[in-house]
Design goal:
The protein is α+β, with helices and mostly antiparallel strands. The chain contains two helices and seven strands; from the N terminus they run E-E-H-H-E-E-E-E-E. About 15% of the residues lie in helices and about 25% in strands.
């Protein structure tokens, strides 16, 4: 088994258009490093300076990892990770 990672439209250029990819690792940090071996550049869009980028939300099984252990959050086979870029804007 592997960990399913759901990729937002804006990052699918790194996954050849795939909506989800599979990876492995004991933590989110390891998972993103593993994904980067097959999808070069993806990690840099999610991680900056060893931490999750400020405007990228990551969910582990529908739970915001910022309220867990951030990039050090433990993951396991069968887990689902969702990457969502924060969206802002609108009319004032």
């Amino acid at each position: 088994m592997a960990i399913e990672v759901r990729i937002p439209t804006i990052l699918r250029t790194y996954t050849d258009g795939e909506k989800s990819v599979e990876g492995a690792g004991a933590t989110l940090d390891e998972l993103f490093s593993d994904l980067d071996t097959r999808h070069a550049g993806l990690r840099d869009r999610v991680v900056d300076g060893g931490e999750l980028r400020r405007f990228v939300n990551v969910y582990l099984n529908d739970e915001d990892v910022r309220f867990l252990d951030g990039i050090a959050t433990k993951v396991a086979d069968g887990d689902s990770v969702t990457i969502l870029p924060a969206v802002a804007g609108g009319m004032a």
